[in-house]
Design a protein that fits this description.
The chain contains 16 helices and 20 strands. By secondary structure, the chain is of the alpha/beta class. It starts with a helix and ends with a helix.
Length: 466
């Protein structure tokens, strides 16, 4: 349904689309947006446990995967026992891929849910079905978090994320009051045109991947452009935000930076608290655990979450692959729910180098649409500047031209890089010494060059402050 509405909007004349900015939240985000307001903030332990019980009950009644596993483990959601819940096996993105059909709710249809894929650096994109209601619920939480920097719905945003804009260097989205820059080709357009669009739009916020916004800052600095836009804040997520980048961005754009931790799977959302440099975990969003390497509760370890937002494909005790340290003392701002003192993981660390020695984050190179469902695995490989190889292991049912489909999708994202695809089997996907399969495999020489380029550009911006 959401996909059909989006297509109808895009096919409408521009004069009609401009009116979309006046649509009420109920129309843009659905009724679930308003209903989710009851879940914002610190809802209390009792209310959170009630939601945890309800999530397990629903999964048992509507998902064959969970019915089988609960019965196999002797877990009864109707007579909820928290210790028994903690003994349930954890799941991973591989579980989603191997048992996708059985994990989808029998109430999920193409009208009340949609298929997308997980994202983020280090997390190999995996198909996941999300309910339409989860879309509105998610935005209710995001707007609640963004209110920390005085964001109001319909504030104008300059967006630097991974949207597919085709060959257009920028595009206006009136529904969300966004001006979106195409990360993959905006630098090919005349800078004067880009700046003219931004000045005309007068954004109040910048919303994007940290790596993309940092690259945008570098691009402006290289052309001697000073930012004098009346920004209220920068909203940066989907990747780790380094402290030095945060300082430099705030200095250059003259606005506070707000960040958060989350993921497409919607199993954990934590928003930054400026009072203590910590992250408030949202208890109405999910139930979050931190487990050590042996799967035991710990103050420091892997983030594991159970989502309350997505009934179309309930995820229970889902391992994110990201790591955090819990605070033992709460937060000085008065927040009583759990707090992360530190969040770290596989975010925003890997970059492909194009012909012009530009750095492209692998976050922006995730395969989307139907492709992840056609591939058992895939891996990005780069051994020469300006050349990217995609090694893929397809399912037997994948079409013969799946390699060409991969190249076609990535060509628009890496315009200054030659892209090739190579079909492999399981042995063709490289592993690390610890048996992990990295998203990007790069020669040691290129890893060194990436680090030099990042250091060089960081030094340029740091030198500007002194």
């Amino acid at each position: 349904m959401l996909r059909h509405l989006r297509k109808a909007y895009e096919a409408s004349p521009d004069s009609f689309r401009r009116l979309a900015r006046f649509l009420p939240a109920r129309v843009v985000y659905g009724a679930s947006y308003s209903a989710a307001r009851e879940l914002l903030g610190d809802i209390g332990r009792e209310a959170q446990f009630a939601m945890l019980r309800e999530t397990c009950r629903y999964a048992y009644e509507h998902c064959p995967f969970w019915r089988h596993h609960f019965e196999q483990d002797g877990f009864t959601p109707y007579d909820f026992d928290f210790e028994a819940f903690q003994d349930l096996p954890t799941i991973t993105s591989d579980t989603l891929k191997e048992h996708h059909a059985e994990m989808v709710s029998d109430e999920a249809t193409s009208l009340n849910s949609y298929l997308t894929s997980t994202g983020g650096t280090g997390r190999r994109p995996t198909p996941i079905r999300l309910s339409n209601k989860s879309f509105g619920r998610e935005w209710a939480f995001m707007h609640y978090l963004w209110n920390h920097v005085s964001y109001k719905r319909n504030d104008r945003k300059l967006v630097l994320r991974g949207q597919d804009l085709g060959n257009r260097p920028y595009a206006w989205n009136y529904v969300y009051n966004d001006l979106r820059l195409n990360l993959f080709c905006y630098q090919d357009a005349p800078l004067s045109d880009i700046l003219s669009q931004i000045r005309h739009f007068r954004p109040r916020f910048i919303h994007g991947y940290p790596s993309a916004v940092v690259a945008f800052m570098w691009y402006l600095l290289e052309h001697g452009i000073e930012s004098n836009w009346p920004l209220k804040g920068l909203l940066l997520g989907s990747e780790e935000l380094k402290e030095q980048d945060k300082r430099e961005l705030s200095k250059y754009f003259g606005a506070p930076v707000y960040s958060w931790y989350g993921q497409t799977e919607k199993v954990c959302l934590a928003g930054f608290c400026e009072h203590r440099d910590s992250y408030h975990i949202m208890p109405g969003y999910s139930y979050v655990e931190v487990l050590d390497h042996e799967g035991n509760p710990a103050n420091e370890g892997e983030i594991v979450g159970t989502s309350f937002l997505n009934e179309s494909m309930p995820l229970i005790r889902y391992r994110t692959g990201d790591y955090a340290r819990l605070s033992l003392h709460g937060c000085i701002c008065g927040w009583n729910a759990p707090v992360f003192e530190e969040v770290r993981g596989r975010w925003g660390e890997d970059f492909v180098i194009d012909n012009g020695k530009g750095l492209i984050s692998t976050t922006a190179l995730n395969l989307h649409g139907e492709l992840p469902a056609l591939l058992r695995k895939y891996q990005l490989c780069q051994n020469a500047i300006g050349h990217l190889e995609v090694r893929y292991w397809p399912y037997p049912s994948a079409p013969a031209n799946v390699g060409r489909m991969i190249v076609d999708q990535l060509k628009g994202k890496v315009r200054h890089c030659k892209v090739e695809s190579t079909e492999v089997t399981a042995t063709g996907i490289e592993k690390t010494a610890r048996g992990k399969e990295p998203m990007l495999v790069q020669s040691p020489e290129l890893v060194r060059i990436v680090e030099e380029l990042r250091t060089q550009r960081s030094t340029q911006t740091s030198g500007r402050e002194t």
